[in-house]
């Protein structure tokens, strides 16, 4: 960063977050995710794909013991910086999905993962793509998070994640039930249709198997926070 680059800060709920370069600034989906996170003091919490560390910092401030991960090194640096800025302790780790927490279990695993359906041949390797692209049907990272959950969620614990409505509520429930989790929707919100979605609208329609997307050119999209509770 040079002296003329400027400094982007985000202030929310009494916390201050420095928005580093190459890390996605907080979006409506980030705040929606944090608003519906059922964090309890004393719990062991894992956030996968923590970005700036918004949810992780708030969970740590609520008294949870937090491990926050991201696959992008700049994000890991941002989470560490934002934890320090807000005087909370977070165990921040670099890595892909569950790789940084092999053999560990948590009371709550949460993620607002990349989930924008991405047409074949449009994958990229940069940090913006890591924040947005969810594979061809949007479920690529989510499926890995759900598949690995039985190994990492403690008995009675919860897995909580966000989805775009067009990924399918029934689909999310079926995936959780197949892994032994009881599904529920913790919150829903109608948000502005994401800009990146317009350029791949036809592709999104092709994967919207539950018909959640409005016809024509949509201006809004439903977001859901889904929870799976382990028996
Ligand atoms: C949609 S952003 C959400 C960031 C933040 N949690 C929020 O709500 O604002 C998704 C984040 O997941 C990270 N990510 C993408 N793929 C990942 C993977 N395989 N393992 C861990 N993190 C990943 C991205 O770098 C990005 O920071």
In words, what does this structure look like?
The protein is α/β, with parallel strands linked by helices and 231 residues long. It has one domain (24-229): 3-Layer(aba) Sandwich (Rossmann fold). It is 30% helix and 29% strand. It has eight helices and nine strands. The chain has helices spanning 28-35, 54-61, 73-85, 127-132, 140-152, 169-178, 195-198, 201-207; strands at 8-12, 15-19, 44-48, 65-70, 90-94, 106-111, 153-164, 181-192, 220-230. The strands form two sheets. Strands 5-4-3-6-7-9-8 form a seven-stranded mixed beta sheet, with helices on both faces. A two-stranded antiparallel ribbon has the order 1-2. Helix 3 (73-85) links the parallel strand 4 (65-70) and strand 5 (90-94). The longest helix is centred in the middle third of the chain and has 13 residues, at 73-85. S-adenosylmethionine is lined by residues 24, 26, 30, 33, 48-51, 54-55, 69-72, 75, 96-97, 112-114, 130-131, 141.
Topology (SSEs and partners):
Elements: E1 8-12, E2 15-19, H1 28-35, E3 44-48, H2 54-61, E4 65-70, H3 73-85, E5 90-94, E6 106-111, H4 127-132, H5 140-152, E7 153-164, H6 169-178, E8 181-192, H7 195-198, H8 201-207, E9 220-230
Parallel strand pairs: 3-4, 3-6, 4-5, 6-7
Antiparallel strand pairs: 1-2, 7-9, 8-9
The structure holds S-adenosylmethionine.
């Amino acid at each position: 960063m040079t002296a003329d680059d400027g400094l982007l800060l985000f202030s929310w709920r009494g916390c201050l977050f420095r928005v580093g370069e190459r890390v996605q600034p907080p979006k409506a989906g980030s705040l929606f995710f944090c608003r519906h996170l059922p964090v309890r003091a004393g719990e062991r919490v894992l956030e996968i794909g923590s970005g700036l560390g918004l949810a992780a910092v708030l969970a740590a401030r609520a008294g949870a013991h937090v491990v926050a991960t991201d696959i992008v090194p700049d994000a890991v640096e941002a989470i560490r910086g934002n934890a320090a800025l807000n005087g909370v302790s977070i165990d921040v780790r670099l890595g892909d999905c569950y790789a940084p927490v092999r053999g560990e279990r948590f009371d709550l695993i949460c993620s607002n993962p990349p989930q924008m359906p991405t047409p074949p041949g449009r994958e990229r390797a940069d940090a913006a793509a890591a924040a947005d692209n969810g594979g061809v049907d949007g479920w690529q990272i989510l499926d890995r998070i759900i598949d690995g959950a039985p190994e990492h969620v403690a008995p009675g614990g919860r897995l909580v994640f966000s989805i775009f409505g067009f990924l399918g509520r029934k689909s999310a429930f079926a995936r959780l039930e197949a892994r032994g989790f009881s599904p529920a929707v913790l919150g829903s919100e109608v948000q502005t249709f994401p800009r990146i979605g317009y350029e791949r609208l036809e592709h999104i329609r092709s994967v919207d198997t539950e018909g959640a997307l409005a016809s024509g050119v949509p201006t809004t999209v439903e977001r859901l926070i889904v929870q799976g509770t382990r028996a």
